[in-house]
Amino acid sequence: MNRLATAQRQDKAYDLSRFRLLIIEDSAFIGSLLTGALKTMGVGSIIMASSFAEARQVIARCNAFSSTDNIDVVMTDWLTPDGEGEDFIKWIRENRADSIKYLPVIVCSAFADRDLVEHSRDSGANEVLVKPVSAEKIAQRILYVIDKPRAYVQAPEFFGPERRRQDKRFDGTDKRVMRQEDIEVDHERAG
Predict the structure, then answer these.
(1) Between 37 and 151, residue with greater pLDDT
(2) Residues with Cβ < 8 Å from 85, sequence gap 6 or more?
(3) So what's the pLDDT on residue 42?
(4) What percent of the chain shows pLDDT beyond 70?
(5) Residue 56's domain spans which residues?
């Protein structure tokens, strides 16, 4: 399991010095702004890739198996010169290595309208940020991934983090819960 699941908290302060984050951004200027914000937050290792092809190579090298050198989070633009985020996220989610398949992905795009947010989510992204981003918004999304990781769902047409974020209260009787006295065991069939 990666360091996200075991991130240590100290009175709401986070030690991100061993945290590894991959940024996929084809604009060197935007990449340097993101890197600066992440360094200010104390992120220990930031790896830059300017294309999805380069990012695939980095992830395959760093996350081929579970280790302390794994990338913890990917922050990616939706569009790069060599493709769209949908194909890249699909490559992550369909990967055979769990250390890649379960890698949290934060999409960061200047064109994040409702359709792109829904498309990113339905492709398997964990979070979506709209450019221009502030250091505060970046920190919120990263800490959300750390503090509130969503369960991953396998469905016929989807693998990725649970898409429903709301925890809605249900006031009715929960019919999925059984009391022990309601369980009958047929010992003849069970044997």
Answers:
(1) 37
(2) 76, 77, 78, 79, 107, 109, 120, 123, 125
(3) 93
(4) 80
(5) 3-190
